[in-house]
Amino acid sequence: MRTDSLWPLGLAALVGVPILMSVLTNAQAGGGPGTSQPRAASKPRISPVADAQLDEKRRQLVTAFSGSLPDNGFRTLLQLPPLVEAVMPYTVYLSDQSTLSPRHRELLILRTAWLCGNQPLWSYHAERARKTGLTARDLHRVAEGPDAGWEGTEATLLRFADQLYRNSSVTDATWKALAASYDLFHLMDAVETVNHFTVLSMLFNSFGVQPDSGTSDRLPTDVAYKVTVPAREPPLAVARVEPVPGDGIAVGRTFARHAKLNQARGPRANFINRVSTLQPKYREMLILRIGWDCRAEYEWAQHVGRVGRAREHGLDPVNIAEGSDAKAWDPLERAILRAVDELFRDTMVSDRTWNELAQRFDSGLMMTAVFTASSYRATSMSLNALGVQLEPGDERFPKVTSR
Predict the structure, then answer these.
(1) Domain residue spans of the chain
(2) Strands (E) located in 106-250
(3) Which tens digits make up the pLDDT trace of 314-338?
(4) Considering the entire predicted model, what is its pTM?
(5) Tell me: the pLDDT tens digits for 80-138?
(6) Integer CA distances (angstroms), 62 to 6, 11, 385, in order
(7) What's the CA gap between 136 and 126, in Å, rounded?
(8) In 10 A of CB 304, how many CB atoms?
(9) Which CATH number fits domain 250-386: 1.10.3080.10, 3.30.360.10, 1.20.1290.10, 3.30.2130.10?
């Protein structure tokens, strides 16, 4: 998949201040994202599809989204063809069709790859970034962060990425600084670029996608991993992006403000809610727990309530909030919740948890479970950053004792 028009599927420290919250989860108590640089699996957990395994359906996907022989990331996702159909439209849009300039896209993607410790994405996008005018020194400064000589909008973009990754939200000051240069479409595209490439990093790290042998760029090893951001601010009381008028819940009407982005985003959510064969109880556990970890109360409310109907699947929201140590869970359920916390904190599932889940889930369900939590992490980040407001009568977070 070595084309310049499509995405990177395979190519493709300490936080300055703590997150201030009244309720902590196991994952958050362990430091949260950005405490130390994630380390991806050192060898494939999901094997890339070999040429001999490319059946007609997979060849059609290669033709549709690659245009040449697929690389390691694409080959890995081809193990579950519907996942390619879920991931690729948004990746193509954000890589090549968004309102952002190519240079600004690459800055956000590279910084996200650095934050997530993802080698394949860094490798591919470093090559693309050079074509936008970024030098080898610039690439090194991306790893060094927003205070490494960046100015104006580009410094703000890097701070924006750091805050989304670490806090699952963006401060008013940073939002307003970016809004001085960006219109609504650019702002939404910036949010979604960071969020979606965090999803890809979580997938690639957990599946063990390795950089392609023909690439030479790697994450700089001589830069200390440091993510310094302001304390997370309280949830927004007023939407930053006003939903379009009409029927339907606020999240759908918010994304409808940017029709082209919304159309490309659709297949990602459709896979989880309509294509996935994951048991609904497990799906809702994954979604609710990542919403809790990200402090996305809108997501929580919808999946406790009318969208996910958690209680109809035998789930007590308080047990979700208490995490994997709650007495209610069986061993598989504990592993599911622990996987979510690891994805949130470490941008990958640990060997121990992966192996526990793999005793009960086949490779397709493993890929689906990781994707579900990862995709809803991105959704949580979007809801927080865009300021999507609770619906009338929504159930709020329960109060639990921190551990």
Answers:
(1) 26-207, 250-386
(2) none
(3) 999 999 999 999 999 999 999 999 9
(4) 0.92
(5) 999 999 999 999 999 999 999 999 999 999 999 999 999 999 999 999 999 999 999 99
(6) 12, 14, 34
(7) 9
(8) 24
(9) 1.20.1290.10
